[in-house]
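Here is one chain, start to finish.
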Amino acid sequence: MKRKTIYLPDEVSAALERLSEAEGRSQSDLVREGLRYVIDLHSGSGEPPIPLFMSDDPTLAERNAEARFRARAASGSPMQASELLDDLGRRGG
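Its structure:
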């Protein structure tokens, strides 16, 4: 592992410290996770790594897909069925 020095704005540094304490993880570990996320996001697929987070709510994906569907419909740019199925993780391949 290589050592790097970075400069953070005060508000980012304070937020990182609070998150580190709340999660019981080192600040370095959180920074590495964030960098991996950004690198993965920009590595070609354009998709964030999955899962983004864990939830005990079994209806979360459906509720999120429904909210996105309604927002797109209200904007005048309706969601295609394939997009909705992708959101629900049910598209056949």
